[in-house]
């Protein structure tokens, strides 16, 4: 093997290694970026639903009947949305409401009504007037069962001159598995583009190598 060939092969190896490292780093960053986007949407949803409940809160009492009926209708609502290559057929959200003490008044799953949720980060931070969010495993033995929650304060003004008081929390959760297909699809496209880039560079390097080794021979071959 000539020195020129070894140099060109070394360039190819360095290039392929750099591309592989770049793809690896970018692929690791895809999941956090999707989670950030999902959290931003949960913030909007939680604050929208909390605002609706504020209009039905009187004397510190939060009325959740209308929210319950709405979510029941939502679960039966037909949905067929094709988002790029992924088809969405259902709204997957977990919604619960607590009072000012952190006691669950409403749970869309019907499981934890009456339980004390003050210990959850999304609840106690929101009740303290801060931004409350958490990610919790539904099954401690299953890492893929993670659910992201974002809390929004339910406020009430006792009188026009008084400041708003936090009388409860509405928290919205979404399973991380709901957007896992989008992450897998993005990674697949990333690796395809990376493979094309490596292949194109290898082909270009081969053409340059042949041209440098036989510059005049190639011209002769073309005109024969």
Explain the overall architecture.
It is a single chain. By secondary structure, this protein is of the alpha+beta class. It has a domain at 41-179: PAS domain (Beta-Lactamase, 2-Layer Sandwich), CATH 3.30.450. 51% of the residues lie in helices and 22% in strands. The chain contains five helices and nine strands. The protein has a five-stranded antiparallel sheet with strand order 6-5-9-8-7. α1 (3-54) packs antiparallel against α4 (180-213). The longest helix has 52 residues, at 3-54. Mean pLDDT is 84; it is low at 216-223.
Distance linking N and C termini: 29 Å
Known CATH architecture of the domain at 41-179: 2-Layer Sandwich
Alpha-carbon Rg, integer: 28 Å
CATH secondary-structure class of the domain at 41-179: Alpha Beta
Biggest sheet strand line-up? 6-5-9-8-7
Can you tell me the CATH superfamily of the domain at 41-179? Answer: PAS domain
Largest sheet: 5 strands, antiparallel
Beta-strand percentage range: 15-25%
What is the number of strand segments?
9
Q: Mean pLDDT, as a whole number? A: 84
* Low-pLDDT stretches: 216-223
What is the number of helices? 5
Helix and strand topology:
Layout: H1 3-54, E1 57-58, E2 61-62, H2 65-76, E3 81-83, E4 86-88, E5 94-99, E6 104-107, H3 121-127, E7 133-137, E8 146-157, E9 164-175, H4 180-213, H5 215-223
Antiparallel strand pairs: 1-2, 3-4, 5-6, 5-9, 7-8, 8-9
Helix pairs in contact: 1-4
């Amino acid at each position: 093997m000539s020195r020129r060939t070894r140099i060109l092969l070394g360039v190819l190896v360095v290039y392929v290694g750099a591309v592989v490292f770049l793809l690896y780093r970018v692929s690791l960053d895809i999941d956090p970026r999707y989670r950030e986007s999902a959290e931003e949407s949960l913030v909007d949803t939680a604050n929208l639903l909390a605002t609706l409940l504020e209009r039905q809160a009187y004397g510190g009492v939060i009325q959740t009947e209308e929210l319950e009926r709405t979510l029941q209708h939502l679960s039966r609502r037909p949905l067929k949305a094709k988002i790029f290559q992924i088809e969405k057929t259902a709204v997957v959200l977990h919604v619960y409401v607590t009072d000012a003490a952190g006691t669950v008044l409403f749970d869309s799953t019907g499981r934890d009504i009456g339980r004390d949720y003050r210990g959850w980060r999304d609840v106690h931070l929101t009740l303290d007037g801060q931004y409350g969010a958490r990610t919790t495993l539904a099954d401690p033995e299953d890492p893929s069962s993670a659910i992201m929650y974002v809390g929004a304060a339910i406020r009430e003004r006792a009188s026009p001159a008084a400041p708003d008081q936090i009388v409860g929390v509405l928290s919205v959760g979404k399973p991380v598995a709901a957007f896992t297909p989008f992450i897998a699809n993005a990674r697949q496209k990333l690796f395809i583009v990376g493979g094309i880039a490596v292949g194109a560079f290898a082909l270009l390097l081969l053409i340059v190598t042949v041209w440098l080794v036989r510059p005049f021979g190639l011209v002769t071959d073309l005109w024969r």
